Every structure is written in C-alpha cells, then in structure tokens.
Amino acid sequence: MKLSSDLIPAAFSLALRCLVLVLLCFTPHCQAVQAENVTVLEGGTAQISCRLQNYDGSIVVIQNPRRQTLFFNGTRALKDDRFQMVLFTPRLVRITLTNVSVNDEGGYFCQLYTDATHHQVATLSVLVPPETPTVEVKQDAVEGGEAELICMLPRSKPAATLRWIRNGREIPGVVSQQDNGKTFSVSSTIRIPVERKDNGAALSCEAYHPALGGQRKVRHYRLDVYFAPTVRIIPPAGILREGDSLSLTCSVNGNPLPRNIQWSKINDTLPERAEISGPTFQISRLSQTYNGTYLCQAQNNYGRAADHYTLLVYDVSVITMVLPTPTSTKPIILLSTTPTLITPNHGLEHKGNMHPHTHTHLETNMLTFFFFCYCHPPLLSLSFPVLLRCLPPRRCCDELC
C-alpha cells in the first residue's frame, strides 16, 4: 500500500526513509542515495542535495523534472548557467539553482548507478508571494447610494487570502479566484452604503500568504463620496452705515467642490461698485440705494445650493453703539442714556417720517426711552440691531425677535 507523503508527519517520513535505506543495505558494501524536498520563493535560490551511503565511486546522475541530465558525476551536462555544482563528496552531492521560477517546479532525480540502480526524488516547490493589492472603484459612491470596490491580486501561489478592513472590523466580501496554470489571481468585492459623512473614511485591503511569513501586504483607500454643495454667506458684524464698506464671504462645501460661485441681487442688477473675487463679495462706500437681498449660488454635477443676505444701510444720523457679543438666544436690550421729556397735554404725535434710517420721536404722558433689541440668531438672517421705542422693553423685544 502506498502512503501519501502529505499524510505522514515530517519526522516520521524521515525515519521511514532511513529505515528503507537500512533494509536495502544488508551488507557493509550496499550503496544507497537519499534526496530532500525543497521549498523556495520565486526569484530565490534552491539547494538540491543528494546524500550518499557507502559510495564507492559509482556514477551519480542528477536530472531535472523533464528527465534532462543536469550533471554526470560532477560534470555539467545541460547548458543552463543557473545550475551550479557546489559540492561533490562521497557523502553529499549538492547543486544550486538561482533565480527560481514556477516553471522549475517538480521532482529532481538523484540516481546512483551500481549493480542495481538506486534513485530518489527531491521535490522543488516554488512559492509566489503577492504584491501589494490594488483597489478599483466599480461604482462611484454618491450620497445616499452604495460604493462598490474591488481589491485585486493578479498573481500568487498558492492563492492569497484577501480581507477588507474598516475601523478595525472586517467587511465581508465576495471572493473570486482564477487558476492561471502555475499561479492564481484573486479578487474581493464589497458594496457598502454611503452618506456625506463617509467622505474620506479610511478602508484597507489586506493580503495574507504563507510566503509573507506572518506579515501582510496592505493597500489603504479613502472613500470618495460625491454630494451636492452647501452654501452659507458669512455676514459682517454690526450696523452698516452710508460710507461703510460691505464684505461678504460665501462658504461653499461639496464633492466635487464647485468651481464657480455666482453672486446676484434679487430683482436688480449688481451695483457698479461691487467687486467679486471667487467667494468674496465687496462694495465700498455704501449708500441706501444698495439695499436689497444678495444671493450666492454654487452647483456641481450632483445639485445646486444658494444662500441670501439682506443688506440694510443706515444713514449717518443713526446712533453708533457698540453691541456686546450675544451669548444666549434671548434678545439683548440696550437703552439710550437720554430720556424723552413728558408732554402731558398732547396725544401721540409723530415727528418726522418713520423708516429704519430715521430716529422717530414719540411724545407720551410718561418718560420714554429708545431701546435697541439685538436678536440671536439674527432676524431674517440680518446681523444688525433693530431700533424701536416700546414699553416694557422685554416684552417688545421678545415679540420682535
């Protein structure tokens, strides 16, 4: 009965071969030969050894897997300079094979020609370690959809194992393996749902193989998630008066990032003094004729977005006050330092036209103050305070904001 060498432990296999040699040699003059299997990495150097017992000078021949004679009693027989005879003694014959390829795999014959020919086969196995895997995008990742990624290894022997990793956890993939004759190509495909927050998320594809000695080859990849832009106008702080300058910045996000940012004015054309430089919009020497709502718009292949800013320019007669930075969502009330004098015999009387740029003086039967209410967040996306007269101030500011 013939036993497979794969089923016999290495130590037991060696002992069995030695026992065979002993059984074959019942006399002190019996000759025998023994060969050892070799495993080497592709491109490396293999040592093929033939061990002799009771050698008396008989002919020793070494042949390749195609039964071509490499060496005859130490003399080269095949013109392949990759093979070299490095040792020939009565106990050991050894050759080397450099730049090993998978085509060199197979059984190398150690033959001893005596009255009875003896031979042993040294099996050469070649491992092909994988290169660093590559990652390809089979389906673009769009917000709300799925990303389909393929990790590929074109060549290894035996077939390498691929694993997808994200945040330290393995992502199960669909594995495909193809036998290319001497080597194998392997791929692993994953499909994962993606949102805007996943843009730039880190993944890795890892290759494991016996030839790597417990190490791994890793390809790192970052998700590229496409999504429509978002737009936000950053307004100036405080009140804008005639003669001041306006500077707006349009903060744009998106993937891909929009290349063109468009500024416009609702129901009107942009002022002649308007200067646009990418996301920045500026107007020098403001006047009330520039009042209105200005738009910033941006778009990419996945959508468009816009934000607006309403400009309200005060005339120079408006009292200049320094407003504190709001720290809560409740309105801030500021009182002017000069009260209005009592006129008890008069009803309500309007002094001048009531509009946002003119102080309105109202006489009542009690002391009256002017109040400033600063709303947070700003009312109608405006970041200037509102001038009004009202008692009690807290109630009026709450209603206004």
TrEMBL record:
Presence of the UniProt keyword Transmembrane helix in the record: yes
Signal peptide positions on this chain: 1-32
InterPro entries: CD80_C2-set, Ig-like_dom, Ig-like_dom_sf, Ig-like_fold, Ig_sub, Ig_sub2, Ig_V-set
One term of GO molecular function: vascular endothelial growth factor receptor 2 binding
Alphabetical list of SUPFAM superfamilies matching this protein: Immunoglobulin (SSF48726)
A cellular component annotation (GO) from this entry: cell-cell contact zone
Superkingdom, taxonomy of origin: Eukaryota
Classification via PROSITE patterns: IG_LIKE
Annotated keywords: Disulfide bond, Immunoglobulin domain, Membrane, Repeat, Signal, Transmembrane, Transmembrane helix
GO BP terms: homophilic cell adhesion via plasma membrane adhesion molecules; regulation of Rac protein signal transduction; regulation of wound healing
Locations listed in the record: Membrane
PANTHER family hit by this protein: CELL ADHESION MOLECULE 4, IG-LIKE DOMAIN-CONTAINING PROTEIN
Protein name, as recorded: Cell adhesion molecule 4
